[in-house]
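Re: that chain you flagged

S.,

Sorry for the slow reply, it's been a week of failed gels. I finally had a moment to sit down with the sequence you sent. For the record, here it is as I used it:
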Amino acid sequence: MTLRPLSRIKKTTMRRNIVHPGAGKLKYEIREIVAFARELDRWNIPITWENIGDPVKKGEPVADWIKAIVSAKAGEDNSYAYSETEGAREAREFLADRVNRREKIVSPGKDDGGYPNPVTISPEDILFFNGLGDAVAKVFGFLRREARVLGPSPAYSTLSSAEAAHSGYEHLTYRLDPERNWMPDLSDVEFKVKYNDSIAGILLINPDNPTGAVYPVEVLREFVRIAGTYGLFIVCDETYANIIYGGAQTAALSQIIADVPGLALRSLSKEVPWPGARCGWAEVYNRKVDHRFDLYIRSLVDAKRLEVCSTSLPQLCIPAIMGDPRYAGHLTWRAAMFEGRAEEAAAAFTNIPGVSLVKPRGALYATAVFDPAVMEDEKKALARFLPVSDPSLGEFIKEKTAAVASDKAFVYWLLASTGICVVPLSGFASDLPGFRFTLLEYDDEKRRRIYKNMAESAEKYLNSR
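Prediction finished late last night. Pasting the structure tokens below so you have them in one place:
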């Protein structure tokens, strides 16, 4: 056979389009803003990273007793081996038992027997993933493409992007209302479910990221009622279920889901905290009530079998960490810490015309919202700026903000002026202009200075022209 030189091979376009219809929907502004921040290196601007929720990177020390548990487990040979596909048996037994010990919720002030008993699950209803990013990719990726999941707006980017990418269309959303402490507009939820029969599920995040809202039991029950009425399943991201403060009262999905099929997503990342573990799991409820839901869950397990299993070490640590008598106090201490920081953030943005901030009651973030009427004046928006250290930097930012969302323009100017990196609210599938920042900075003085600088910059920006 004569080999033809590569230079003489006729070059053609690919014979088939290999791009998934949803490829352009994968957006994660939380990390994408980092690429822009790196472009400011030429002006030697030190960056304060307020974009991503990593407590450890922001200075929170991991408790010595937790480190000792991890160290001891790492010394055991089985932590280096494969686990079962669904996850380490001892971890799944431990977590299933925790679900089954959640208490019944009684209706306040009513003698009606309260809400249905919490669901009972087995270890087979726990499925481990390599972090919730892996879980989300599979939960949405193995849905039938025509089956849509209605989610909140603002929405956590991983969830909204994964749902949009699986369908090839924009994420379907219901409204969270900042005028009502970011509570969901349940009439909007039911209207969209009723008149769009492609909707097969409802997504909620409780406590919510990015807003810090915590849903009362009655709100959660309405989600369950709507799902049951229209034959839907529920996905609830409960990453921050044990980071609740400010007197907020809520429930786990397992306590109020009745006989509706559903999934709760949980993780070690923010709670221990151990984000580098990449260890998350799904709790599956009422799997057998519908054969299609059962088959769908089986597809998630089959997908994990192709990977063999998720990382063993963090799974093996779960019973020892969460079962330790010190863990409850650890959670209480952290919740109180974040409550104080939420108070600081809310105070920093008080009485600034054109900007509002609803005090978070859960999770690790706060969201400031600009008055849309003020921000969306295009002529004024293009003229707004913040002072920067170098005229060339100002020209660079003007060029970059000429064709971006109004809140993203502010985020770019904030970076250039102060080095503080936040995330525009438009990056969370929201039409409200604003930005999200974290409650994570461990250095008290530095954290208060960050909040003060952000609030003052927002006021300057709105008054510049």
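What I noticed first: Residues 327-348 form the longest helix (22 residues).

Talk soon,
D.
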